[in-house]
């Protein structure tokens, strides 16, 4: 069974020491929120976590940002304030996750051709 081919939209904020990434629903939702901040964040965000990519932009491995990292960059340990700044000043990037195939359950054993 194939998986993937899903559009993924991120907002990347280039910080002084780290790149910060948040996942959003889509580009239109972010642009609407930028015009009208009264739109609830629940309609814009695709999760409430802030990730760092260790200055690798949208690519690479994303790790959840620590409180200290957020506080050093944004001057607050409040995730909501940091998310607002990332949404307001970050760069929107869209990509499509490519199709993947693979074993869904390792308990089914090998599936190689003999």
From TrEMBL:
InterPro entries on file: Ribosome_mat_SBDS_N_sf, Sdo1/SBDS-like, SDO1/SBDS_N
Domain annotation Ribosome maturation protein SDO1/SBDS N-terminal: ranges: 8-99
A Pfam family matched in the record: SBDS_N
Transmembrane annotation, as ranges: none
Record-linked SUPFAM superfamilies: FYSH domain
PANTHER family reported for this sequence: RESTRICTION OF TELOMERE CAPPING PROTEIN 3, RIBOSOME MATURATION PROTEIN SBDS
Protein name (Swiss-Prot/TrEMBL): Ribosome maturation protein SDO1/SBDS N-terminal domain-containing protein
Origin species: Trichoderma harzianum CBS 226.95
Taxonomy of the source species: Eukaryota, Fungi, Dikarya, Ascomycota, Pezizomycotina
């Amino acid at each position: 069974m194939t998986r993937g081919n899903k559009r993924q939209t991120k907002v990347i904020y280039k910080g002084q020491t780290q790149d910060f990434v948040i996942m959003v629903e889509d580009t239109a939702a972010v642009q609407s929120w930028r015009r009208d901040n009264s739109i609830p964040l629940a309609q814009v965000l695709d999760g409430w976590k802030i990730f760092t990519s260790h200055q690798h932009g949208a690519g690479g491995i994303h790790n959840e940002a620590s409180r200290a990292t957020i506080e050093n960059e944004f001057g607050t340990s409040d995730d909501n304030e940091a998310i607002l700044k990332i949404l307001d000043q970050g760069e929107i990037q869209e990509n499509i996750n490519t199709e993947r195939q693979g074993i869904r359950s390792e308990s089914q054993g090998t599936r190689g051709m003999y």
